[in-house]
UniProtKB/TrEMBL annotation:
Name under which the protein is recorded: Zinc metalloprotease
Family: Belongs to the peptidase M43B family.
Keyword Hydrolase listed: yes
Species: Ancylomarina euxinus
PROSITE patterns: PROKAR_LIPOPROTEIN
CDD domains associated with the record: ZnMc_pappalysin_like
Keyword Lyase among UniProt keywords: no
Residue ranges constituting the Peptidase M43 pregnancy-associated plasma-A domain according to the UniProt record: 227-339
InterPro entries: MetalloPept_cat_dom_sf, Peptidase_M43
One Pfam match: Peptidase_M43
Length: 351
């Protein structure tokens, strides 16, 4: 949704007539101002208006609400992550016009990270004999992530013409760094992050500043998975996936094709749900995704109209069946890449 307002504010040069002040602001230095007025972190527990009896498949926003209550500084940290992201994305447009061109004057401002990104992945499995996670599940899950984050999902051919130009090759590769297994008799871990702590029966995160930690366990409550957004505490950073929804697994039914992980890693990379977890005016902070006021389920026929525009139901950040989601947009790609730039919440992954 196009809500990003950007302006370039030239800072005034205020100097005494004859003084050579070391802190002087040069006339060509600029600060990119971004509008943060639409930023939100708290959401209603249940925001979908679809009328479906589905619960929230993804627990990320519920978990975020809990973490915000437990940790008052989190909201401010997420605000700063967002502001940094918006500045870099705004700079990309500004550099593309006049200021970044050779001879255009001024130094190009930092933009979202360029180039390929490789993410080492730690797979932490809380083993439940009734819901085994095999090496084949792991291999297929990594293959699906690498397809989806490199624009190689075979379903992408079905993208409607109006969204064709928005399809992004995110160019992120996921590589397994370690697999940790721990037997457990717990059949419902919930969403309180217990699986991330060895003293609560879980497995501690491995070097989360440099690895994406997955926890695979029975979550319960109809939740397929949940992720922690950038800006959160390091010891709980990562993604949780229900055992049956990890990789290619017939036990997962329409969610047994590995796209819960694609969706949750999107949150871990700072993407919001495509409908913005609210009404038509509540944004997902991405310029090239249409406005919507609800999640879509199943395998919607095109067009599906909400908020007077066609929903991008095939986006990984909606709630549709695994085989019916097959794209990220260029705007989402910029947003994900901003956190890897200097000063970004996940810059340690590329440095
Ligand atoms: Zn989600």
């Amino acid at each position: 949704m196009k809500r990003i307002f950007l302006s370039v504010a030239c800072l005034a040069l205020v100097l005494g007539s004859c003084q050579n002040n070391a802190n002087e602001i040069k006339p060509d230095q600029e600060e990119i101002a971004v509008d943060m007025s639409d930023f939100y972190v708290y959401t209603a527990e249940e925001t979908t208006k679809s009328g479906h009896i589905h619960g929230p498949q993804c627990g990320s926003m519920k978990v975020l609400n809990r973490q915000l209550k437990e940790n008052p500084s989190l909201e401010n940290r997420m605000f700063n992550v967002e502001k940094h992201t918006r500045k870099l994305i705004a700079a990309k447009s500004t550099n593309a016009t006049s200021k970044g061109k050779p001879g255009g004057g001024g130094t190009p401002a930092p933009t979202p990270y360029q180039g390929s990104i490789t993410i080492p992945v730690i797979i932490n499995i809380l083993e439940d004999a009734n819901h085994p996670v095999t090496q084949a599940h792991i291999n297929s899950q990594i293959a699906i992530l690498n397809e989806d984050y490199n624009d190689m999902n075979p379903g992408t051919g079905g993208v409607p013409n109006e969204f064709n130009n928005a399809v992004a090759d995110v160019d992120i590769t996921f590589v397994v760094a370690a697999i940790n297994r721990k037997a457990s008799t717990k059949t419902s871990w919930g969403t309180n992050d217990a699986m991330k702590h060895s003293n609560l029966g879980g497995i501690d995160a491995t070097d989360p500043a440099n690895n994406l930690n997955f926890w695979i366990c029975e979550i319960g409550g109809g939740i397929l998975g949940y992720a922690q957004f950038p800006g959160g505490e390091l010891d709980t950073d990562g993604v949780v996936i229900g055992s049956d929804y990890f990789g290619e697994n017939p036990a997962g039914g329409q969610y047994g094709h590995g796209r819960t992980a694609t969706h949750e890693v999107g949150h871990w990379l700072n993407l919001r749900h495509i409908w913005g977890d609210g009404g038509c005016r509540q944004d997902d902070f991405v310029a090239d995704t249409p406005s919507s006021d609800r999640a879509n389920y199943g395998c919607p026929s095109y067009p599906t109209v909400h908020c007077k525009t066609n929903d991008m139901t095939m986006n990984y950040m909606d709630y549709v069946d695994d085989n019916c989601m097959y794209m990220f947009t260029n705007g989402q790609n910029d947003r994900m890449r901003a956190i890897f730039s200097t000063g970004g919440a996940r810059e340690s992954f590329v440095n």
